[in-house]
Amino acid sequence: MSQTPPRTPLLEAEDLHTWFELRRFGFVRIGHVRAVDGVDFALYPGESAAFVGESGCGKSTLARTLLGLHPPTRGQVRIEGRPLLSRMGRKARLEHCARIGFVQQDPYGALPPFMSIRQILSEPLRIHGTTSRSEREARIQQALTEVNLRPAADFLPKFPHMLSGGQQQRVVIARALLLAPALLIADEPVSMLDASVRVEVLRLLRNVQRERQLSLAFITHDLSTVRHFADRIFVMYAGKIVESAPVDALLDTPHHPYTRALIDAIADVDADNALSERAIPTGEPPSLVHPPTGCRFHPRCPEFMAGICDVQVPTMQPVAHQHAAACHLYDKPKEP
Amino acid sequence: MSIAPAATSPLLQVNDLSLHYQTRQGEARAVDGVSFALQPNEAMVVLGESGCGKSSLARALLRLLPRNVAHYSGAVHFEGRDLMPLGEEDFRATVRWQRMSMVMQAAMNALNPVVRVREQVAEPLRIHSQWSREKALARVRETFGLVGLAPDVLDRYPFELSGGMRQRVVLAMALVTAPPLVILDEPTSALDVLTQAAIINVLKRIKREQDISFILITHDVATSSEIADRVALMYAGQIVECSPARDFFHAPRHPYAQLLMASVPRLRQPEAPGAIPGTPPSLLALPSGCRFADRCPQRFARCDQPPPTFHLDGSTVRCWRFAPEGAP
Asked: Which of B73, B36, B40, B32 is nearest to B317 (CA)?
């Protein structure tokens, strides 16, 4: 987004760590899974950011930490400047919940099968104190119309299994929007849907985000759709953010070798693809229990510099306007 | 319905294959009159949305049928032999996994967790071919080399392996009997981008080095373009277009193919992808005319009749738009 930037961020993560303890026999501590390991970022009002990474890079844990479902091991999440605490009073928690909408990955799992769409959508309103039945009904209808489930009245008595996958995901989005949140967190919102429906749902999310001036944090493994549906991209690898940039800058001039590998691995449809093999880094993403020393990508990196990459942990440094990467290739040169 | 004869004799020729399931709500026509031919060393991609019958097509070819089959008919000629009259025991002993094998969808999650992978990969040889343990193990070792697995993986258990490695193990299982045809059902869709590219590279190399044909079933257009020689697009139980890869990816003919290609997000191009309106029809209650008509922007009067398959230089299209001039 190219607006004037003196605003306070809507969502901020500062030195965020979410580790899970590994125990043997239920009590002997034998280590930690460092799912989120030192993440800093800020998301401004009305901005849509995509967190991209492979499975096991900690992106879903990050989403759950931002939602307050996992207490951070270290660091802090702030929403509109207020810290998210692991223990909050009922009132504070309700307020917090109403500011954040969550779009789950799997609509089949996110909608209770024995509740009608009306019941599913009334629940958050009831919990958040909309006591009048007619007001609830009006808000539900409005939400369904907003996600293009029209006429809304036809969908209300239905049960989730009577809807297609795309329609179910729209109900999930409607539910996330009901309490008029300022922030929407979507964890792989379309990965369970068919290709032809994906674009529709992403477009819907994008339109809603723009119309309501929401901030959207959207977790995905699919770089090919982000150009059209995000303003900013954060690339995650092994629990850390390795590159952050506006979407076009990141896709057109990726700086981190991992980002480059991700982009190179994606085919644009072309019959000539069948004629050549793709160059991809060898190996697999590292263990989050014993991550590699230094830069976590160094065992797979084509630019590996012995004595630097395997020793020093790279920090995020600016490489261009609003564009930062955590890679020793961009360490400040020693000459003046 | 027949397919124009090709220069070489095809490895697999399928004519009017149907597979319907009996369900409580009626008969689901998952595969409904599918015809195609596959040449030796050709990779054909079967593209389609979920529920279009593409996995059922694979099951029909390999005759891995569930119990609720209502109707199974058509002609399957494979290596010059008519497979349909074969009894189940003949089929198992001489065709399935001997000459035609399959990588099942999500098979990497179905490996037996308490059996070493070398035993699991050797199983087809030990059971279908009655090979000795030593001979089978040598062949497994060779196959592991082919799919890019280190020999030390042989002695490991599935839970010790990453997703990409398990997918290679499953691929080795399909290749271990050296069949001329392997059917791959969504072999990469559960994998990460980099692992996906690595598996596709393995498939390309195998196809280049060996005389092997693939039928790759997927919903992912971008990945399919990595390996396809030909693309068959399925919709509601039928193949609506079957074209050489170059034609399909660059100038699709069927209106559904055109919309599908326009809906593919492209990383390097500025245009936003389009969406296909509507949803596919239920296989239980198919429309009497063209099955895509309700979603089709190019619909006209004739679409109320079911379109036959039209042949146009190298492609087949099931759409009235391609009816020859003056035809009835």
From this structure: B36
Contact residues, chain B, for A165 at CB < 8 Å: 50
The count of structural domains within chain B is 1
User: At B317, which CATH number?
Assistant: 3.40.50.300
- CB-closest option in B219, B226, B259 to A267: B226
| Fold of the CATH domain A11-107+183-189+213-330 | Rossmann fold (3.40.50)
Domain of residue B219 covers: 12-99+179-322
Task: Please give the single-letter amino acid code of residue A193.
Answer: L
Among residues 240-279 of chain B, which lie with CB inside 8 Å of chain A? 245-246, 248-250, 259-261, 263-270, 272-276, 279
pTM: 0.85
Give the C-alpha separation, A58 to A52, whole Å.
10
Residues from A in contact with B at Cβ < 8 Å: 54-55, 164-166, 194-200, 203, 221-225, 227-228, 251, 261-263, 265-271, 273-274, 277-278, 280-281, 284-285
Using the beta-carbon criterion (under 8 Å), do A225 and B165 form an inter-chain contact? Answer: no
CB-count exposure of residue A209 (10 Å: 0-12, 13-18, 19+): buried
Q: How does pLDDT run across A298-335, given as a tens digit for each residue?
A: 999 999 999 999 999 999 999 999 999 999 999 876 55
How far apart are the C-alpha atoms of A32 and A289, rounded to whole Å?
6
Q: What is the ipTM of this complex?
A: 0.79
Q: For the segment A248-299, what is each residue's pLDDT rounded down to a tens digit?
A: 999 999 999 999 999 988 878 888 888 888 888 887 788 888 889 999 999 9
How much is the pLDDT for B5? 47
